[in-house]
Design goal:
The complex is a heterodimer of chains A (about 500) and B (about 500).
Chain A (H helix, E strand, L loop, with lengths): L4 H15 L6 H10 L5 H9 L3 E5 L6 E5 L1 H24 L5 H20 L3 H19 L5 H32 L7 H7 L3 H16 L7 H8 L2 H22 L8 H23 L4 H25 L4 H25 L8 H19 L5 H12 L13 H26 L7 H20 L11 H7 L1 H24 L1
Antiparallel strand pairs in A: 1-2
Helix pairs in contact in A: 1-3, 1-5, 3-4, 4-5, 4-11, 4-14, 4-18, 5-6, 5-11, 6-7, 6-11, 7-8, 7-9, 7-10, 9-11, 10-11, 10-13, 11-13, 11-14, 12-13, 12-17, 13-14, 13-17, 14-15, 14-16, 14-18, 15-17, 17-20
Chain B lengths: L1 H23 L5 H27 L4 E8 L2 E7 L1 H24 L6 H20 L3 H19 L5 H32 L15 H4 L2 H15 L8 H4 L5 H9 L2 H17 L1 H6 L2 H21 L4 H20 L4 H32 L10 H4 L1 H15 L5 H15 L3 H27 L19 H19 L7 H13 L2
Antiparallel strand pairs in B: 1-2
Classes of the chains: A mainly alpha (about 500), B mainly alpha (about 500).
Amino acid sequence: MNAVAPHLLLLSVVLPFGALALALWPGGRFFYRYTLPWLPLPALCLGMLAPDSSLELPWLLNGGLWLVDDLRRTFLVVTALVWSVSGLFAVGYLKRVHQTRFCVFWTLTLAGNLGLIVAADIASFYSFFALMTFAGYGLVVHEGTVDANRAGRIYLAMAVAGEMAILAGLLMSAELADSARLSDLPGAIARSEQRDLIVLLLLAGFGVKAGLPLLHFWLPLAHPVAPTPASAVLSGAMIKAGLLGWMLTLPFGEVSMPVWGNALVLLGVLGALGGAALGLGQRRAKAVLAYSSISQMGLMVLMVGAALAEARQAGTLLAVVALYGLHHGLAKGSLFLSTALALPERRSGRWLLWGLIALPGLSLAGLPFTSGSAAKLAMKDVLAPPDYHFAMASWLPAFMSAGAVATMLLILRFLQVQNQGAARGDNVLCLWLGWAASLLASVLLFWVLPWPESVPDKRWLHEMLAGAWGLTWPMLLAIGSAAVVACLFRQR
Amino acid sequence: MASGALLPVFALMTSLLASLIIFTLPEDRGRVRTLVNIGAALIKLALVAVMIRGVAIGQEYLLAFDMLPGVEFVLRADALAMLFAGLSALLWLLTTIYAIGYLEASPNRSRFFGFFSLCVASTMGIALAGNLFTFFIFYEMLTLSTYPLVVHRGTPKALRAGRNYLIYTLTGGAVLLLGIVCLHGLVGDLRFQEGGHFAGAGPELRGALPWVFFLLVSGLGVKAALVPLHGWLPQAMVAPAPVSALLHAVAVVKAGAFGIVRVVFEVFGLESAQSMGLLSVLVVVASVTILYGSAMALYQVDLKRRLAFSTISQVSYIVLGLCLFGPVGAAGGLVHLVNQGIMKITLFFCAGNYAETLGAHRIDELDGAGKRMPGTSVAFTIAAFGMIGAPPLAGFITKWMLGIGALAEGMDWVVGVLILSSVLNAAYFLPILHRLWFRERTTPWPKEYRWGRLETSVWLFWPPLMTAVMTMAIGVFAAMPFSPLAWVILIVSREVAL
């Protein structure tokens, strides 16, 4: 595997670009959509199997370096999986009109998303990031409706602003570091006199993509209007690119920045609770899910804030954030795909399917023995207050519990809206396959993946049972309050 | 060394000769004309390639003789000359191919291609000129040979634009001449020299030199379209598309910018120009021009006019780079000489294709053009993103170098100018791209022509695609030897003596 890994690395990024050639002749265009599920597979192999390896590309930009390491493997797995199952779903979902255009933008966005994960030099990272951003526009406005165009405009305006903030931040830190490598940036930023400005620029720039509260306005507009498979990759995979951007550039572990930490924790809570509150008022399933993404990213922002505030804890925290991202990406991808499924006519079948659709949602809420429970337990483990000394630290457990209640409420809302809104009937085979694959990935994959070394051990059953009450009471509280509200409405 | 002296002359003569032959050809000898045109362009490209190889290993190509007592005529191929000569030779070939397709079956083609070749000969002379007088000769020759191209259509609008063009550029030329004469009076005839001449200039010179600098730069600034000397450029876009392409990418606008580079680097020298405080003024002018051009472009509804204002903005990146004092900034400015040329010529080729194939001149007539003309639209998209400065395209390399250069010299506000300009670029290019790819066509095209299997004529189809590929290649492969960036770093290392 050691010898193959660099080739696999190259193939992961080059394959999507190669697929663009299919758009050139009619036969290729006909065939194009069937390739979508396969394009991310080399990257998936890379993420699952490859050891740490790197690839020097001295002729690229100002000296390219691509690599895989622990962090990147986690991101590769979630990204490649979500793209692959959504691609499978898209085969069944796509209509004739503008199909080639959609496939081209899909492949370009995919190439950007995979490339930015493996890129370890500034120029190629930023290139892939920009490619993903701008090609993503094509996915957002694909339907061509008034809503889609409006969402696209806002998406693009905010994306350009974000790109510019990133450019300024990268320029400043690259000049200080006098290096073309991403790995040299955090240290240079930590030592800089302009540290706060650079951190602000990078936080805000990547924050647009990550749906950071107050920079999130495009997200609940754009994620729902895109075609369903595109919504899944937007919310499942691409949103994580902002998170990865933070992890690769901000001075984690170099210096403790309690002020930024406090601010981010507050923003995270605002996102987690505010996103949920707004989401409860939505009438379309995809809009509820988009707000749920903001809410979930809020929890991750909270952890990122803690990592910024406490340099010693940063390494462990970031590994947990990555795992949380993996769990959320897979679950959210599956949830988004399920919004386009028609429910069976028969009552029993409908309830069965509805239960399966609910499963990733319950996993988000932390149902024991799901990926969500594992992620949440790991999160609780590393966020224990004695290790932290910044102002917000003692509030962290309370914030997390509140976040869990909010998540469950939002999932209940989603299930309600989904049940009301979904069509009745049968689905095309590829829709079933794509959705089933996403469900399996969400429910099972977490347990078979190798656990990164820096994360506290998962103690399987024992831990799960001991933590079961901690995990379930927020869910029960949410269900209880939802039931009360439902009763009140019915009485009126 | 005989061959050393002759190569620059040959490079110059190929297009002069081609021009003479074409002038004498009867109008209906299209095949011969095409052969001469393309043959000359290929020969010149080969000659320039040979010289580039030579200059890279330190060979000197020099031809000098006295024209008047005390006034030399100097042709010299140095690294900087090769940057401009290489660009012009390459783009001439593509533009010739394009122009052949564009002017097919239109009248006065001999006149057009004759002046076209003459214009390229002037550009080559400007690149190879070894002192200000030689530079001036070719600079004026360029003015006179482009005028017939601008007014080629002969419409009242074209004639008006041409008159305006002449007034602006001839006045600029006169001011430039005045500056050259003043400088000659002060210090005699000066060859261009790496590092400049005034490193140890005494106080008696320091009083007069800023005025000379002002004269030279304002003379050159007319062609470089520095605000407020830019008025001719937006009007001149009435010219046929290949002319606009050449005007904006290599010939006229670049000649001005290149002249400023020569004056700052090789007459004054970067350090002395800075110590006299000359560059601090120029950097403000460049920044204002960058923002003004971008802001004006936003309001244009005609595609070529929008591109013209974009040129005003983009060419000033070159000047801005020089004014950042440091080697990195200078490299960023110089590399934009090539980058802007290739990107802008792509955009004008595409604009010409839309006009010739669909009859679409205004931006709001382009709805759905991506489906009808995918090749052209892909090229346009790539070049537009390049202009915005999106990585990994050519424009990004410029912007990155300029940004790093500015920060290294403590001029942080320049980063703000770059960012603001990028945002404006995005604001006037992205809506066009949206129209191309995401609007549905509901009405017929204003005036559609059909050309067999391809979306447009073969001659018009390939040049923009090739320059679009170059736009990607010079960004993606910036670290390769003989990439524009690598060449520019070679120039800067010779100029600033690192």
